[in-house]
Automatic annotation (TrEMBL):
GO biological process: small molecule metabolic process
Organism: Colletotrichum costaricense
Descriptive protein name: HAD family hydrolase
Superkingdom in the source lineage: Eukaryota
NCBIfam families registered for this protein in UniProt: HAD-SF-IA-v1
Cofactor: Mg(2+)
One Gene Ontology term of the molecular function aspect: metal ion binding
A Pfam family recorded for this sequence: Hydrolase
Keyword Hydrolase in record: yes
Length: 247
């Protein structure tokens, strides 16, 4: 293990935190809605909510080793149609739907507002930067590169590489050991209370919830007060305080 450093370190989640998953999801769902009459009777917001729920359920099944990674695409589409009360399409129809959804989703990938500028500022200040993400290494690396953040971080660890997923202590421990940094000077920024916030609290680092739709400045998790940011640029002021304390 490297010697412990007092340098400020910030870990980020990828999906829904640095990567604007909601924007890409909206573009993907809009594309299939235009092609499938059965979906036209549903408003876009309802479709997005249902698909996101189905996606998370399928991915949870993969993380729990109930299904394989290759089966997640078909599983989430089946859950999506079931959740809408529609007939579930056969395999060929699902493949057709995915061929419409995937290019629209991937072609609209972007960083969340303020993320690039914040990462650039943090790097200039000498802050160590990392990404801790649940997912396949190849997919997550491609995604981070596509949205322009991969070259701005020092390290990325995926659940595939770690052999465990957030909120498991193991994936956080690997990232912490890679930097050799002091726990009190590490921050974890993520959009999931279950994965990012609880995982950070369990390992003893400082969590920050990223929630663009929240109207609150904080929430309480396991008796701890957790700050909430709605835009990544708000992180600058918080880290400035930590940097000042180290001077």
């Amino acid at each position: 293990m490297p010697p412990v450093s007092s340098k400020v370190t910030v870990f980020f989640d990828l999906d829904g935190t640095l990567f604007d998953h909601h924007h890409s999801l909206s573009c993907g769902i809009s594309a299939i809605r235009q092609k499938y009459p059965a979906l036209a009777s549903f408003d876009l917001t309802s479709l997005i909510t249902q698909y996101n729920t189905s996606l998370q359920s399928a991915y949870d099944e993969y993380l729990q080793k109930i299904i394989t990674y290759e089966e997640t695409d078909y599983r989430k589409v089946r859950l999506f149609f079931q959740g809408l009360g529609l007939d579930v399409p056969d395999g060929a129809k699902i493949a057709e739907l995915r061929d419409i959804y995937r290019p629209a989703y991937r072609g609209s990938r972007r960083a969340t507002p303020g993320s690039i500028e914040t990462l650039v500022w943090l790097r200039k200040k000498g802050v160590c930067l990392g990404i801790i993400t649940n997912g396949q290494e190849k997919d997550q690396l491609e995604k981070a590169t596509a949205i322009g953040v991969q070259h701005l971080v020092d390290y990325m660890i995926t659940s595939e590489e770690a052999g465990c997923c957030k909120p498991d202590r193991g994936i956080f421990r690997l990232a912490i050991d890679a930097f050799g940094c002091c726990l009190s000077e590490i921050y974890m920024v993520g959009d999931s209370v279950g994965s990012d916030i609880r995982g950070a609290l369990d390992i003893g680092i400082n969590p920050i919830l990223f929630s663009p739709i929240s109207t609150d400045s904080h929430l309480t998790v396991s008796g701890k007060t957790i700050p909430i940011i709605q835009n990544m640029s708000q992180l600058v002021g918080m880290i400035e305080v930590s940097l000042g304390m180290l001077d």
